[in-house]
Specification:
Length: 89
C-alpha cells in the first residue's frame, strides 16, 4: 500500500513515458561480437573459459554472459583451423 506522499511524487502518465525505475539496457552490439568466431573455435578445441577471457582482456563473467546470450556450445566436429581475423566463416 502506497502512502499519499509517494503517490503525489510519482510521475503522471503523459503519453511520452510513464515508466518508473531503472532504464532498459542498450540494444546495440556486444563487446565480444567481433570475436565470436574465435570464441567458438576455442570452445571447439576445449580451451578453458578463464584462458579465453584472459586472451580477450575481458572479465570471466563477461565472457560467460556472452556465451550464454549467443548460445555458443562446443561442436563435436570442430574447425581444424582458427578463424581468420575479419574474415567470414
Amino acid at each position: 500500500m502506497e502512502d499519499k506522499k509517494t503517490v503525489a511524487t510519482m510521475p503522471k502518465p503523459n503519453g511520452k513515458s510513464s515508466s518508473i525505475g531503472r532504464p532498459a539496457g542498450r540494444l546495440g552490439s556486444l563487446k565480444l561480437e567481433p570475436h565470436e568466431a574465435q570464441i567458438q573455435y576455442w570452445l571447439d578445441i576445449g580451451l578453458s573459459k578463464r584462458r579465453m577471457a584472459k586472451n580477450l582482456n575481458v572479465g570471466f563473467n563477461t565472457l560467460l554472459r556472452f556465451i550464454d546470450r549467443k548460445q555458443l556450445v562446443p561442436r563435436k566436429n570442430g574447425s581444424s583451423a582458427p578463424p581468420t581475423p575479419g574474415g567470414s566463416i
